[in-house]
Amino acid sequence: MKYDFDEIIVRKNTNSFKWDIADGELPMWVADMDFRTAPEITESIIKRAEHGVFGYSTIPDEWYQAYINWWKDHHGIEYKKQQLIFSTGVIPIISSCIRKLTSVGENVLIMTPVYNVFFNCVKNNGRNIQKFPLDCNKNEYSIDFDKLETAISDPQTSLLLLCNPHNPIGKIWDKQTLARLGELAYDNGVTVISDEIHCDLTDPGQSYVPFASVSEKCRDNCVVCISPTKAFNLAGLQTAAAVVPNARLRHKVWRALNTDEVAEPNAFAVQAAVAAFEHGAQWLDELRQYVFDNKQLVSSYISENLTQIKLVPSNATYLLWLDCTSLKMPSKELAKHIRKSSGLFLSSGDIYGNENGFLRMNIACPRSLVKDGLERLKSSIEML
Asked: So what CATH class is 52-279?
């Protein structure tokens, strides 16, 4: 490998949300990585910083072209310049769209278990959370479309939040599934917001399906959220894009983002995104392989040493969904026990809309830390 993902980088005392923990604890919870970003991105940021003037920034053509080229070359869809709108993040896009595209008291449908901040976006804006639990058979998640049709046909339901690929279960939704979902949404007047921030974090040899590429109904009825921040570990730089192919819907989203003042870049947002998409491909390929190898390590360790836990099969993200239901312990209590007894900090499954004994583990870290985390998990489970 050209890049070193084994290096231990000390993040304590760096104002890191993830690492603001007690001494001796190991955080494997929030979704950022413990790797340095691609050096090509760092070089671009340093070059911008050396200029020394950090006034208001505009969006240059190279920003649009970087997104267009990446999605065309890596994901097989060619977006148009006029379809892209800069935003400071995916969550600002979602929250702004909820405020602009729905009314207070209407329903926003969320397929659970799913990224916990989705719930905040809905609740904090005075809309109703409409939980739609995914079916789960032997730890394989799917959508019951008969149930979805009933839920989505509710006249109070006006928006559906799609996670594609799906966090925390790591599932890549196939084209047929997305097509059926998109048709139901379109036919019932329900707009789809597709959060595709994890799309570049698929297993080697795997690729995701952009929602807007599936059908005409999907394309004309969606707001797509994309960003280099998750794949290249740039969350703190606040850089993302909304893609809205339909002109009328795009105008509403553009108005929403500008009204909420989340459509202007900071001094490094453009340069970092351009550098990631133009020069980060090899780094990302090596990262995906490294994370995949971490996943294989966890799978083997659990099957050999933690038979009470099942690893839910996945093909995307660096987040693992652990089925601990055989321990007969609520997720929150289990996570608390593990952290108190071993210092391992995992996410409790209840915050994702699942209260039946699941945990989420972030394995985007050097392999030595993954091994440390597994040993801590084993010791905690043995104490039960």
From this structure: alpha beta
Q: Please name which of 116, 117, 122, 173 lies closest in space to residue 148, comparing C-alpha atoms.
A: 173
> What CATH architecture applies to the domain 26-39+281-382?
Alpha-Beta Complex (3.90)
Residue 208 and residue 75 in contact, taking contact as beta carbons nearer than 8 Å: yes
pLDDT digits (tens, 9 = 90+) for 246-276: 999 999 999 999 999 999 999 999 999 999 9
Radius of gyration over alpha carbons of the chain, in Å? 21
Q: Which residues pair with residue 84 across a beta bridge? A: 243
Q: What is the DSSP letter of 221?
A: T
Q: With beta carbons less than 8 A apart as the criterion, state whether 122 and 95 touch.
A: no
Whether the link from the prior residue into 228 is cis, omega within 30° of 0, is: no
Q: Residue 275: helix, strand or coil by DSSP? A: helix
3-state SS, residue 87: strand
For the chain, the domains span 26-39+281-382, 52-279
How far apart are the C-alpha atoms of 222 and 79, rounded to whole Å? 13
